[in-house]
Amino acid sequence: MGITKDISFTTNFTHIIDGKPATSPTMAPIVNPTTGEVIAHVPVATNEQLEETIAAADRAFPAWSAKTWDQREDALVAFGALAGQHADQFAELIMREGGKDRMSTGFELSSAFPWIPKYAKHRLQEEVSTDEALGRVSTIRYRPYGVCAAIVAFNFPLGLSVLKLTHALLAGNCLIIKVPPTAPCAALKLVELAQSVFPPGVLSVLYGGNDLGQRVVQHPRIMRISFTGSTNAGKAIMREAAAELKSITLELGGNDPAIVFPDVDVKKVAQHLFIGATGNGGQACFGIKRIFIHEDIYDAVRDELVVLAKGAKVGDPFDKDTFIGPMQNPTLQDKLKGLLADCKSKNYKIAFEGTVSDEGGKGYFIPITIVDNPPDDARIVREEQFGPIVPLLKWKDEEDVVARANNSEYGFGSTVWDSDMERVRRIAEKLYFGMVWINEWAPVSAELPLTGAKHSGVGVESSKHGLASWAYIQAFVCKQSID
What we know:
Layout: E1 15-17, E2 20-22, E3 27-31, E4 38-43, H1 47-66, H2 69-84, H3 87-98, H4 102-110, H5 116-120, E5 127-131, E6 136-144, E7 147-151, H6 157-170, E8 174-178, H7 185-194, E9 203-206, H8 210-218, E10 224-228, H9 231-242, E11 247-251, E12 256-260, H10 266-278, E13 288-294, H11 298-310, E14 313-314, E15 322-324, H12 330-345, E16 349-353, E17 369-372, H13 379-382, E18 389-395, H14 398-406, E19 410-411, E20 413-417, H15 421-428, E21 435-438, E22 450-451, E23 453-454, E24 457-458, E25 460-461, H16 463-468, E26 471-479
Parallel strand pairs: 7-8, 7-10, 8-9, 10-11, 12-13, 12-20, 13-18, 14-15, 17-18, 20-21
Antiparallel strand pairs: 1-2, 3-4, 5-6, 6-26, 11-24, 16-17, 19-23, 22-25
Helix pairs in contact: 3-4, 3-7, 10-11
Organism: Ganoderma sinense ZZ0214-1
Family: Belongs to the aldehyde dehydrogenase family.
GO molecular function, one term: oxidoreductase activity, acting on the aldehyde or oxo group of donors, NAD or NADP as acceptor
């Protein structure tokens, strides 16, 4: 090991197979979404390399799973400390390949390396019961699956890799990370760095497109899949994984509502709503996607959001004055252009449509846009936009707004805003979402589950509940003698 002595964070991106860097005959260009320029070339994994990676993980599994929880925690903590020493270099990478603004970059980094020791402290406790009359000791214990895979999304490639690998390895599994096709560089370097801590084969990484993802999901020797991405892709993975009865966790799309009552400080709540709807360019599964505002304060909140939007620069993320950068890839940009065109073709009122600072004209930029009270059946309301185009919706009846908020195939996150705590809790209890937040947005932590209902996902990431998904339950019964 020790391949990280002269690690370069700007060149020489490779797979990591059996603890060693590996390249491939075919190379893929990686584009900076701010400029449209190629910033790196990465190897595209072959079928043979996938087989080599799985075989190495198979070899590493017995020894790694035999280590104690504390030994695996120690290795993870050492890895977190090492990765944290390169935080500035990781920040530059994710800003270049992801177009991520400084604030969002800080959020991703702060919820990545510093959280590794927090995740690593989680434990799955055995339950022991004794029947003395029968001479029987029964133990309910948690056993690792073996070779597992994580398929990571482009919007938080570093944070999601850390989240998945920490619990996977802590539980005793060996993990193969399949990095996102359009934003692989930070995750590739993360796993390269890890080889100075973990034995060969324990943590590997491969680059490839959707065809590689399909081969990973279908492979009979990969026992578990953790996927973050779109709902449509998640459904396809669930179908493919069913053939091998794999364990899966799917963290998928969202169309998160915010319900705003009249008894709030308009300026304060508008600030929270604006960050929640446009942070990371709106490219967050738990971002606020629909804002329901009570009719008594609708105009005031709308106008305050417009003020905030006018002051938010869309441009080069390395510019210190930039609020959000580009969309990460042209496919997402095209989707958002289509949604905006649909709003205009239907003559929906646009409260604000901003401009972008894109002098070269090659970046994947979308202006911050606020749509003023479109109908509930509008595409911008029904679909997950995953960008900085946000609809504002007027309401006056409590039961009606709860029904409208719940009327979505998605069920990821939701927020309710009010100073009347009895009322806000009453409303929040009726929301059918995996996460419900009152008077704040996205209070994520290592102790809170990241989970969705309905089409927003299957299973749990983060917290001790997320750790439990990386192990199967075994009933271990020992009778002292043969009667």
